[in-house]
Amino acid sequence: MLSQISSYINLCASIFVLLSSFIGSDGAVPSPKASTELICPTLHASDCYPSTFQPTEEFQIVKDDQALPPGLHIRMNLATGIKEARLNVPEHEDVHSDLVIVEKPDSVDRHPEHIKNVGIGDQEESSNVPIPHDQTVLGESSRVRQPPFEPGEAATFEHGMSQLRNSSATISDLNATLVTLQDLCHSGNWGLKLTKDSNVTQFLVHIFLDVSQQLSFRSGAALLLATAIRNNPEALAAALAHFYNDGWPIDIWPNQPLEAVLLALLHEHSPKFLIRTVFLLSSLCQDQIQLRKFVMEGGLDHLLQVFQAEKGVEPDGDKLRGKIANFILDHIIQADFPEPSKDRVEYETFTYDENENPMSQQESWIIVDESLEIPEIPNPKRFEKNLKDWELAFDESRRVLSKKKTHESVVAWESVEAAREALRKRLASKANL
Q: What pLDDT is recorded for position 90?
């Protein structure tokens, strides 16, 4: 009997030991390990999300600290920097205007010090969008087919264009129209369609120049034109063509866009207005001929005067300096102005065929080639002197901005510092040649 009891006790002990191997120290059976670790920025469980992005067939926003598995269709909004991704499912053959990125597994360095600021998608509110450096941009190397127009957008766009052509429209209506069209023209299709219209394009430059108009109205015209041509080579070529066509009415539209910008830099004093002027200048100077003309016509000297001018205690003065520093960094520091390969450059002039339905998807533009004489090459010695003047200006501005604590001054200091460092490297490399 005792032997049976002993055997029973030994059996229970064995079962207890076996169970203990599955039970934690707190007596609870552990749950299976989660397939994906979570990131919890707050103490609320509802704010947690997977550390590795979980793709579906629909685009979803990717958090900054999420890892991305390979083989996804990724797009980025260049205006906001927001990244979205989904499974790489087959689509229609049309190429969309999204920035399509394929990330190489374990190759993208996500540390902030390795992220380069590039001056794309610049608007008056933000100039640089960070893009990781080890990414491959896919798509056609030249012309990108835009997504089809939305019917509602087409009606809104055509109504806005008719408002700008309407000589009896009120300033209030025109201001509202500028805002509506500016929002649409972030899409390359609408930017191109707007700049193909010679009357509207020339009207925008005319309003920008008209000192009798309210600054907000003139500023809105500059912003709309700059948005339409920004990162849109076809729209930029179409816009410039209207001003280099020998047949256009010089007596009504006496100034080309770049000349209008130079006049504004010389005579205007409002920081808010000048911020949008610099945005328009930056958009125009994506064309190398316009950039060369800007330097040849003393634009760097005019811009330096604006940069060094006292703009009062308001934050817009510091913001303006930051925008100017970004322009110098993006367009001037690496400019070398090589000998042109030919004596003339062709722009495309677009004339609208009134017999076609303006709401039609079918393009109905007659393309006429016009030519523009390329300006001389900037004097190398004068250009280097310009750069040294800017180095001194950046040094002084950096010192002044470092004493301020506002958000605008901090952002401006970062822009000035980036331009200053790049400029010093440029000058040092030239000195060592």
A: 54
